[in-house]
Amino acid sequence: MKFKLLLAAVMVAALAAGFWFAQQQRAGAVAEPDTDAVILVQPRDPGTFRLVDHRGDAFTPAEVTGQWTLWFFGFTHCPDVCPMTLTTLNLVDRALADAGAVRPQVVMVSVDPARDSPEKLAEYVPYFNEAFVGVTGDAGQIRELTERVGILVRYIAQDDDAYTVDHGAALLLTGPDGNVRALFQAPHDPHRLARDLAELIPWFERKDEAGT
Ligand SMILES: [Cu+2]
Q1: Separation of 152 CA from ligand 1 center, angstroms?
Q2: Distance in angstroms (rounded) separating the CA atoms of residues 96 and 84
């Protein structure tokens, strides 16, 4: 009798576990992964732009179409945030490569185009990672781009005609259609960022394939 009760209890427990597992699996198919990213319900179109990269080549929406891109907005005279972020992004890129995960293209758009020429960016951006792309160009177009994607930029006068630039340090992730899908707020931790990207990009791809 005792044995039968025990058997019944084990069977109930097994059923409950099976039911829980099936539910988790179903939830996993649709629920977004647990990351630090802000996932945009409505992907944001960065608009049309015609800028120039650190090699002197055109940088337009075509350069981000068909691949995942991680965007960062900064400037070469930046004393701390930009060098730190580019160092972090290099660690992220290496971690994703080691994990065999999708490695988004990394683009730094200058918010100081008056001082950041393509030549200046060529001395700066590839120093952190040969594959990273520095982008500069027309000040009006860069302003329009930052406004569209929600990056705040402020120019602050210093002594002797000098100035510095206060800028949002969020990272944006655009998908193969060129639209912003997610953003990451600072501070950026290389391990979390790599882990989040390795989960997010395949999740977005499954979602897009399923048409949901
Ligand atoms: Cu900066």
Answers
A1: 12
A2: 18
27 has pLDDT over 50? no
Domain parsing of the chain, residue ranges: 1-31, 38-210
Question: Band of the pLDDT at 130, cuts 50, 70, 90?
Answer: very high
Find the Cα–Cα–Cα–Cα dihedral 116, 172, 107, 58, rounded to 10°: -80
Ligand 1 centroid distance, CA of 188 (Å): 13
Task: Kindly report the CATH number that applies to the domain delimited by 38-210.
Answer: 3.40.30.10
pLDDT over threshold 90, residue 43: yes
Concatenated DSSP letters of 73-128: EE-TT-SSHHHHHHHHHHHHHHHHHHHT----EEEEEES-TTT--HHHHHHHHHHH
- The pTM assigned to this predicted structure is 0.84
pLDDT of residue 19: 60
What is the pLDDT, as a whole number, of residue 38? 96
Q: How far is the CA of 40 from the centre of ligand 1 (A)?
A: 24
Q: Which residues surround ligand 1, an ion (CB under 5 A)?
A: 74, 78, 81-82
